[in-house]
Write a structure and sequence with these properties.
Helices cover 0% and strands 53% of the residues. It contains no helices and 14 strands. The strands form two sheets. Strands 1, 2, 3, 4, 6, 11, 13 and 14 form an eight-stranded antiparallel beta sheet that branches. Strands 5, 7, 8, 9, 10 and 12 form a six-stranded antiparallel beta sheet that branches. The N terminus is likely disordered.
């Protein structure tokens, strides 16, 4: 039996979805999930959400939702971070609607909870829903150049502001956030599949593992 004081702590195990040995970078994909206990989080597993989509409604309205991923080991987040999302606009009052989102990656200190923007916010493409039609959908990918050291306990936050404009207050914009990519009956035209996942691809500098 090895004496207690000579035992060596095991090294942290980090599993990557993709590794580029030439650039010495790796990446992992995490999925948006909204449930009662944890709120909006990012998980490594593509889990079904208790609330698979998030709506904002009105003639001119915004709603902020923050998806957080907590780091269990120190890592250097560096490279191109991608957010892939689906959102759709609709108006149930025989009128038009316009929907879009604003995305921003944020570092949240695990001790102080201070927030630091990692890149400038990006406004996504607007999707217009004509009167008397099924909800109109848009699947977009937004990229951010990031370079930030994360400590154990720090959070990567993807701030999403959902926007809607409409000619009546019946307008809505719907953001999909179901990791399991279930068919949510999202009022899409027949034969038009809607990807209901919210995915963040996080880049890591493998030399930045402490």
């Amino acid at each position: 039996m090895i004496n207690q004081k000579y035992r060596k702590s095991p090294e942290s195990l980090v599993n990557y979805d993709f590794v580029d040995k030439i650039t010495n970078q790796g990446s992992v994909s995490v999925y948006g999930n909204v449930d009662t206990a944890s709120g909006a989080i990012l998980t490594r597993q593509p889990l079904a959400s208790a609330y698979p989509y998030t709506d904002v409604g009105g003639a001119d309205a915004n709603l902020e939702i923050n998806f957080d991923y907590t780091f269990n080991v120190p890592l250097l987040v560096k490279g191109k971070l991608y957010v892939t999302e689906t959102y759709g606009a609709d108006n149930t009052a025989s009128a038009t609607a316009l929907g879009w989102t604003t995305l921003e990656p944020i570092h949240v200190d695990g001790v102080t909870a201070n927030e630091t923007s990692m890149a400038a916010a990006v406004q996504t493409k607007g999707v217009t829903n004509p009167a008397d039609t099924a909800r109109s959908w848009e699947r977009v990918v937004a990229g951010f150049d990031v370079d930030k050291q994360f400590k154990k306990g720090d959070k990567l936050r993807i701030e999403v502001i959902i926007h809607v404009e409409g000619t009546t207050t019946n307008a809505t914009t719907r953001l999909c956030n179901d990791g399991a990519n279930r068919d949510l009956g999202q009022e899409a035209p027949a034969g038009t599949p809607v990807d209901s996942t919210f995915v963040v691809d996080i880049p890591f500098d493998l030399g930045g593992i402490l």
